Every structure is written in structure tokens, then in C-alpha cells.
Predict the 3D structure of the following.
Amino acid sequence: MHYTINELAKLAGISTRTLRYYDEIGLLSPARMSSNKYRIYGQEDVDRLQQILFYRELGVSLKEIKKILSSEYFDRLAALEDHLSALLVKRKQLDLLIANVEKTIKAAKGEIVMSDQEKFEGFIKKLVEDNEQQYGKEARAKYGDDAVDRSNAKLMGMSKEQYAELEKLTVELNETLKAAFEQGDPASELAQKACELHKKWLCYFWDDYSKEAHISLAQLYVEDPRFTAYYDKIAVGCAAFLRDAVLIYCNK
Amino acid sequence: MHYTINELAKLAGISTRTLRYYDEIGLLSPARMSSNKYRIYGQEDVDRLQQILFYRELGVSLKEIKKILSSEYFDRLAALEDHLSALLVKRKQLDLLIANVEKTIKAAKGEIVMSDQEKFEGFIKKLVEDNEQQYGKEARAKYGDDAVDRSNAKLMGMSKEQYAELEKLTVELNETLKAAFEQGDPASELAQKACELHKKWLCYFWDDYSKEAHISLAQLYVEDPRFTAYYDKIAVGCAAFLRDAVLIYCNK
DNA sequence: ATTGACATTAATGTTACGTAATAGTTTATA
DNA sequence: TATAAACTATTACGTAACATTAATGTCAAT
């Protein structure tokens, strides 16, 4: 039985390029060349190719396969065992990598201040909902889909510098808030400064700030467990403290 | 603060070649070139390099890193999550590969009967060669390529159940052989039963059994180190014992 | 002035092919 | 029988992330 390059390629489910390549590197040379220099493969070649593909599927490199096929049975077994331990090392490294990436993502998401888009989207949405409850349809027109879109656009259009500033501001806000909370008085100068910073922070997301919205958001912080959890990480009860402070700040 | 290429390389623990390469692909271009065309890196470059190496350690490709660093925070997080899922896919594939290699090694060692075409092909081929030596061209016609093809076809056409049966039979054969060997007499009832099983086992591969072929195969077991090793794993000297038993069995 | 340490660009090698481009051969059809 | 379709061949570039080598240029120190 003999095959042309195309026939063998189809038989084995590989490309002719692959066969030519295997010829080139001396891994599988055809039994003979026909007068017109076409490659003619024989039964032995088919068998050898089968072996090659077998090892290839196990992830053995072509170089290794070449060595394996030219060696005796025991060497083949040893080669496979070598290969296995190499694969195990690879898996260990991969596991480590995965653990690191997971850790990084986790850190980026929550252990550090969150700025995930989803959160902001939910944030704004909640705000809108809240406004709706508080101010009815009029407010909806004011803070509706359009507002969401603009907010998002604002976020997406932020430059690196702006983002860095926002980050800095966030840290400052949280620190100030924490310090104020420890003093215990929502009307204190420090607490009012925190409100000021909070307003500034909000303006990164809103393009039309209003006292009413600020108050309703502060209220939301207490009611919505997602936000409560966030602010409680700064200090337990901090969300409520902020709300009280904002109430004073806005009615001043 | 500014650094020459060597200084930065040492600082970061990478090669200068890498830095030039990063410059070449536009991943990290130095702040400026000195009058003598040397690369001069600034603080920003150091920071950027730090980030590059961070992502690189997580297995992100340089192309991806380039994209990530030019994008905003949200996209970076999304990129990391994409990367993570890619890594998980990779691990699944690797696990599969490892399982396959392990199975193959196990099979090669004889704990499982090999369904790998390779082994049987070598097996039959050796048999053919042996027959040739023993019986000349006449035998070749009998066990030639055609026989190989039929054997393979038989193997390939085996159902899962048949395969399981074969496995069971193999275990039984090996155990019987081992017990007979320990008794020490190739003519014993147990040894002859082992021959019977061996015949049955052979008939899984041959579609025309003959006493002559059985004998020559048994002889092959002793002469060919591949087979000797296999049977010696059951007990040292077992291949020779089996041959003696088969001789008696076939001449009975 | 020379040496040694550093810098530059450019080319090549690595894996396992994919993808043209170009040219010749065989087979099928009009 | 002419032509087209299908097949063959070689050559060579592209991929990822650099390492290595070569040839050459520059700088500080002796």
C-alpha cells in the first residue's frame, strides 16, 4: 500500500504542510520519491506516523518523539516518565499562577477600595431607584437613564491622572471619615470635612450634584447592605455616621 | 532619577536584551535617548516596567500587557478575569494530558493491557519476523502484511465489553502463570492451564491460531528482551518457564 | 593610548507548523 | 487535443519572547 502526501494527510487528519515539515526535520521521510519528485509513503511510514501522532497527543515535542522512536522499548517508557514529571512541574507552576491571578483579582475587587464598573453601575442604579422613591417621577426624569449614561461615560472617559486623583481622594475621604467617626460627633469639623470630601468624590460620578441626591445617597448607605458593608469595613456603624453627618452638612 | 539600560536591567532583574525588545515592540520606550543614542529611563519607565513584570508573572502575554496598561482600571480587571479563565482552560487540558500519559505509562508497564496499536504492531511484527526465521518465505505469506492488518482490524473493532474481558483474561493468565511458576513444574496441571489461557488470550489477536505459531511466540518471549521483561515482571525466569510449558502443551 | 566595560544595531535560532507565492505535473473535462 | 482543475514541489515569511552572536561604537580609568 502506498500513499501520496495528500492521501496520507487525510488518512491521518493532518496537513500536508505537517508531513513536509516532518520530512524536513527527518522525523518521517517517505519510503521513496516518485520520478516526478512526489513523496510516496509506504505502510511503514503510516505506522510510524501513527506512533508520532500518538506521542504528539501526549504533548511530547517532535524532537523527543524522534529520539523515542529510534530507541528501544524501555527508553520509550523512561521517556514517557520523564515527560510526565515535566508535565507535573508545569501543572504546579500553572496552579501557582492561577492562585496568584485569583488573589490579584480578589485584591483588586474588594480588599482594596472597589472601583469595579459593576459596582458603580449598581451604585448609580440604586441611586436612581432611591431618588424615584423619594422624589417620584420628576426625579426620575432628572436622574433617569440619561444620568446613568452620562455617569458611565464620565467614568469611562477618565484619564489615568484623573483616576489616580480619584484614588487619592478615596483614601483621603476614608481616612477623614474614620477619624471623624472615632471622635463620635457628626457635626464636628472633621465630620463636615468628610462630607465635603464625599461631595467632591461624588462629583466624579455625577455631573449635576444636588443636596437632595446627596442626602438620599447617604440614606442608601445605611439601607443597602452592599454599601453598609463597604463603609462598615472602615468602622462598624460608619455608614450611619456618615448619613448623620451628611444630613447636617446639607441642611447647614 | 534616571537609569541606563544596564542599571534598569539590574534593578529589575532582567536582561538588557529584554529591555531593548520591549522598546522595539513599543511596550516600554525610554524617556529619552542621550546624545550618544543610549537609552535613558526615567521614574515613570521604572513604574511602568514594574507593572509589566507584574502582569508578566501572571502569565499575561506582552501583547495583552500592552493593551492592559493603555486602558483604564476596569478594563484591567476584566482582562485579568479573562486571563484567569484562559488559565483555567489550560489547566483542564493539562490535567487531561497528564491523565493520558499516566494511563499510557501504566499500560506500557503492563498493569493494563495495552490497546495501543503500537504495542501490538510491534508484537505481531516480531512474530512475523520470527516466523520468517523459523519457517521461511512460506510462513511469511501466511503471517504477512495481511495478517497484521487483520490483527489490527480485530483490535480496533473490539467493543468496550470485549476489551474488558481481555483485561480480565490477562489478569487471570498472569496470576495462573505466576502460581504455576512458583510450583516449578512446566508440565503441571496449573502450568498447562496457563498455556490454555495463553492460547485463549492469543486468539484475541490472531484469527488463525496454530501450535507452531504458539511455540515460536513462546520462544520469542525468551529471546526478545521486550517480552522477557514483561514476563519477568511477573516472576524472574517466567518467560522461559512459559516457553517450556507451551512446548509441552503444544506437543501433547 | 590602551584596556575593559558598556552601548548600539542586525541577524539568526528556538517550536511546530500556517500561509502565501510561484512553478511544474497529473488528471478531468470540453 | 487543448485547457482547466487539482495536485505536487520549493521557498520563505510569520508566529512569541526573547537568547545569542557578531560587528561596531562610546566611555571611564589606567
About this structure: The beta strands of chain B are 32-33, 39-40. Chain B has 13 helices and two strands.
